[in-house]
Design brief:
- This protein is α/β, with parallel strands linked by helices.
- It folds into 3 domains: about 50-330, Rossmann fold (3-Layer(aba) Sandwich); about 335-530, no CATH class; about 535-620 and about 635-660, no CATH class.
- Keywords: Signal.
Length: about 700
């Protein structure tokens, strides 16, 4: 099945969960109002600091949540009451004066006096569209992931909980709350209702004087009457309606579960009150009055007194121990359609970005190639292949989008904005409560670019392993001996005709794949066919300093080349091989300092490096006597032998037999014989010895 079809099927069943007709309507909404949102939506950037103990302030958009949270936490210094068209309103930073939602990111307010944290949560039925709803739902789930002990204040404006008024606003809030609070029983001691924007009804009061005369005036009804009215509305109108709907067999099971939760919430609100320190047991229904005069909130008596009563209610509630699974945050049908379309779009973007990422990784691996060092290139490709394979394996083992994205290593020089796309997908996955991308997609389509990189690097590694094998064969002693005896280098074309090499390359399926491969082979053959270079360095007074350098050097070849290249006797010989030096024959370098350095040494047969000094030159005879009767001249002592040479050998690997090194001083020369003496007078004397 094509990736697009997989997404459509999986996400339609797991993410949408709503009727076809709703989808159609939702698509119209998105296409009309949400196209800019669809293409420009970015993941939320704000990171919430969620304390373990919080009071969640929940309600529909425009119900007064921000004003209440700031007022209770004493962050109301900027809040003031104003009057417009005969009605009083509260103004302040982050407080809306209409049904439009202002809060998009949950804001934490801390009350220092009571050490209480209030979270002003984004409103249900957000009026700003799917992008805002996705963001607020994501943040609410973030709170649920970290909060461990909570109290909950549900808010409803006064007009929504009065008999004879439209009850749809309150029912909407209750049903949202029922989805959020999946286990109301846990909140039996932790839940309250705050009625906001309360304007107490005015009632006529009769006054009797002592003479039986009656006068009357208008006064506001006491708060107890307002609470009684709300309780009556809940018990007589709201609860029976919800209970009947929850038992209606024509209602879908999921919706019936939601309705039953709503009934449980109403039952908790109608329970006996909560214990307070100052006023004993008070109702679970608190009142947040509308101001009755203009000025700063802290200067208005009804607001100060109301805050004190509400703080008693909050302190009387107990914290409920909760877990992440106790909360559920759902989004509207319109936003579900938005999420589906955004996931489809992002999936295409991610696949394209991963393709660019894979190509970037291939391009980056090109830096591993060093034509002058095949072994280093092979080792580098092997290292890169292992890393790529590890990344691909980890990606395939990812359980969700977030884990997948965390495991993708983006090259620093890549312009792929993969992290942002992954962050949005993570948000949509959190919001949807279902995997937005199937695990099979992660393991196949998304991991495919890294599989491609792994295969590419594997081929490169194997090709360079072959080149390394070829390089080693061409630098073996038999081939190098043949090269030494040949007057011309190996033609590169002769290599491709050798059946054993061609068969090996063909097995790798890489030999004739690219022109670069042929160039690699030609470079190996060319390198192996070149003999060592010899140069004489004129840094010694008597000359004779030779340097021999090559890929592979035969020591016997190096000595012969040095003698042929430098005039006069050798005084110093340096031999350097990048690959191997073969000690292939006995060499004689009397009294010569010899330096041999190569990564690898191989000894053939039983050669000797003889650096012994030459024996002293023999002398003849001393001069004979000239006069009669004289002694002949005494013979001189023999000449001293030459000093032994010095060997400095550097290597890492040594193969073959042992090599014998001799660096003795030369023996002294034979002394001169004494000269003959002359004959004596008379009978003649005998000659001198």
């Amino acid at each position: 099945m094509a990736l697009r079809e997989v997404l459509l099927v999986a996400l339609a069943t797991l993410l949408l969960r709503h009727a076809r007709s709703q989808t159609s309507n939702g698509e119209q909404v998105v296409s009309r109002d949400g196209e800019d949102c669809l293409s420009q939506y970015a993941a939320p950037a704000t990171v919430l600091a969620v304390p373990e103990e919080v009071v969640l302030v929940l309600g529909n958009s425009g119900s007064g949540k921000s004003a209440l949270a700031k007022h209770l936490s004493r962050h109301d210094g900027d809040m003031k009451a104003v009057r417009e068209n005969g009605e009083f309103f509260i103004e302040g930073d982050g407080i809306g004066g209409s049904i439009a939602s202002v809060t998009s990111v949950p804001e934490l307010f801390h009350d220092n006096e009571t050490a209480t944290n209030y979270f002003d949560c984004p409103g249900f039925e957000d009026t700003r569209g799917p992008c805002s709803e996705v963001t607020t739902t994501y943040y609410m789930k973030d709170i649920a992931r970290h909060a461990r002990r909570v109290k909950v204040l549900l808010l409803a404006p006064h007009f929504a909980v009065r008999k004879g008024q439209d009850r749809s606003d309150f029912l909407t809030m209750l049903r949202h709350a029922a989805r959020v609070l999946k286990d109301p029983a846990k909140l039996q001691q932790s839940l309250a209702l705050v009625v906001t924007k309360v304007e107490a009804p005015v009632v006529k009061r009769n006054n009797y004087d002592g003479y039986g005369r009656v006068s009357s005036d208008l006064v506001k009804a006491p708060d107890s009457d307002v609470r009684s009215g709300v309780e009556a509305f809940l018990s007589r109108e709201v609860r029976p309606f919800l209970a009947a709907m929850a038992e209606d067999s024509s209602v879908q099971q999921e919706e019936r579960t939601e309705l039953r939760n709503a009934v449980k919430i109403v039952d908790i609100l109608l329970l006996g009150g909560v214990e307070t320190r100052r006023h004993g047991r008070v109702s679970r229904i608190g009142l947040f009055h509308a101001p009755d005069e203009v000025g700063a909130l802290g200067d208005i008596e009804i607001m100060r007194n109301g805050r004190a009563e509400l703080l008693e209610l909050v302190q009387g509630l107990g914290y409920a121990d909760v877990q992440q699974g106790d909360f559920g945050f759902s989004v509207s049908a319109r936003t579900k359609v938005f999420a589906l379309r955004r996931v489809q779009q992002l999936n295409e973007d991610v696949v394209a970005a991963l393709g660019v990422l894979g190509q970037a990784a291939k391009n980056q691996s090109a830096s591993a190639y060093d034509p002058s060092d095949i072994r280093a290139s092979q080792e580098r490709y092997a290292e890169l292949e292992k890393k790529a394979a590890d990344v691909a394996r980890h990606l395939k083992n990812s359980t969700d989008v977030k884990e997948f994205c965390l495991r993708v290593a983006v090259p620093e020089d890549s312009s792929v904005q993969l992290a942002d796309k992954c962050a949005i997908l993570d948000v949509l996955q959190v919001v949807s409560e279902q995997p937005v991308v199937d695990h099979a997609v992660l393991a196949t389509t998304w991991a495919a670019p890294m599989d491609s990189v792994t295969e590419y690097l594997k081929e490169k590694k194997e090709w360079h392993s072959f080149l390394l094998s070829l390089y080693q064969r061409f630098n073996s002693y038999p081939v190098q001996l043949q090269r030494r005896s040949s007057s011309t280098p190996f033609p590169s074309s002769s290599f491709v005709e050798l059946p054993e090499f061609a068969a090996e390359a063909e097995a790798l399926a890489a030999f004739a794949a690219t022109g670069q491969n042929l160039s690699d082979v030609a470079a190996v053959v060319s390198t192996a066919s070149r003999g060592p270079k010899t140069r004489c360095v004129g840094d010694l007074p008597s000359g004779g300093h030779a340097v021999v350098e090559g890929e592979t050097v035969l020591l016997s070849e190096a000595v012969a080349a040095a003698r042929n290249s430098c005039a006069g006797p050798l005084q110093l010989l340096e031999v350097y091989a990048l690959n191997t030096v073969f000690v292939d024959d006995t060499v004689r370098l009397p009294s010569v300092p010899l330096v041999v350095a190569a990564p690898r040494w191989e000894t053939l047969g039983s050669p000797t490096i003889n650096l012994d000094g030459e024996d002293g030159e023999p002398l003849g005879s001393a001069p004979a006597a000239n006069c009669s009767g004289e002694r002949g001249h005494d013979g001189r002592p023999g000449n001293p032998g030459g000093p032994g040479g010095v060997l400095l050998a550097v290597g890492m690997d040594f193969a073959g037999n042992k090599v014998r090194v001799s660096a003795k001083g030369g023996a002294g020369g034979v002394g001169e014989e004494g000269g003959a003496g002359s004959g004596g007078g008379g009978d003649g004397g005998a000659g001198g010895l």
